[in-house]
Amino acid sequence: MQLVALFSGGKDSTFAIYLAQKMGHAVKCLVTVMTLSADSHLLHHPNVSATKLQAKAMKIPQILLESKSDNTQAELELLKQGLIQAKKEYSVEGVVHGGILSEFQKTKFEKIAQELGLEVIAPIWKKDQKQYMKELLDSGFEFMISAVSCDGLDESWVGKKITQQNLDELIQKSEKSKFNLSFEGGEAETFVTNCPIFSSQIEIIQYEKFWDGYRGRFEILAAKMKRQC
């Protein structure tokens, strides 16, 4: 099936594309919405402008739309416009997204897809969180925490790359502080720098880190494709 992917640049949307391709689907394009601020209840916010580099690394064309409002309905309308464009320009038959636990997101995405006659593919929905995080690393995904907003994760986790070595520590912290290990509840956001479907690793050249005592973010100011394969 020819698919459009809802893409944020984080581990979940990227891994969903990876799995959809492994299932035999062709991901013809990406739809990415740049939210107005981190206050969005629906979409990923940090470093969305850097998704252009990730799309290039995946060699998949991207429809990038900029939201002028944090209102959920306005974001949904923009997302719908992107899917309509994808359907028109790339003849897609379905949409793939990386939702794991959020019934709110899933319901909203499925309603739009149904209105447009698109089948929904959600390959990581309801995955066991520990198994999922291990599967990400075992599959060769390299990703970092680009934002933090929960008890249990301090400033040291902002910009940290998740590895086999620190995953156990993250699991312990999630169990102690009761946050979702996969960050599906908005506890943190991620950015993928390399994975099996990238033609090139992404190298972050310049960045800024922000921390207010509880929340923090890692802002990519400049990045490039490290090597061509």
Looking at this protein, list some descriptive labels.
34% helix, globular, Rossmann fold, single chain, five-stranded parallel β-sheet, 229 residues, alpha/beta, 9 strands
Which structural class best describes the helix and strand composition? Answer: alpha/beta
* Alpha-carbon Rg, integer: 17 Å
How many domain modules?
2
Supply the CATH superfamily name of the largest domain. HUPs
User: Overall pLDDT, averaged?
Assistant: 92
Task: Report the CATH C-level class of the largest domain.
Answer: Alpha Beta
Q: How many E strands?
A: 9
The share of residues in helices is 25-40%
**Biggest beta-sheet profile:** 5 strands, parallel
What is the CATH fold-level name of the largest domain? Rossmann fold
The spatial strand order of the largest sheet comes to 3-2-1-4-5
- Please state the second-level CATH architecture of the largest domain: 3-Layer(aba) Sandwich
H/E element sequence: EHEHEHEHEHEHEEE
Low-confidence stretches: none
- Count every helix, treating DSSP H or I runs of 4 or more residues as helices: 6
Fraction in beta strands: 25-35%
Which outline best applies? globular
Gap between N and C termini: 27 Å
